[in-house]
Amino acid sequence: MSPPDSSVYAGYLFELGLVGEVERDTMLDMEKDMKYYVSQNNWYSAWQQWNNEFGYFLGAMGCNYYYGVDLCTTPPEEDNYEKFIQSANTR
Length: 91
Hints:
Largest sheet: none
Helix content: 55-70%
Oligomer: single chain
Shape: flat
Number of domains: 1
């Protein structure tokens, strides 16, 4: 997987109507910075920039579900860790 090619969300989220033009443009700037860091082999800064963008668009969308950007709440079947770990089958 190529982070500069696959870790870009601005156009995708804009086309889905999940972010507006202002948010898209801010995200495009963040993606440009991330790509620059990758080109410099500065992987930690690239990751930080990617993480900043991810947090930015989740906040802009009013969503907090990290694994499905089109969902704004954690699906109930994925919010059962405590029950799962306590079950007899798991133990």
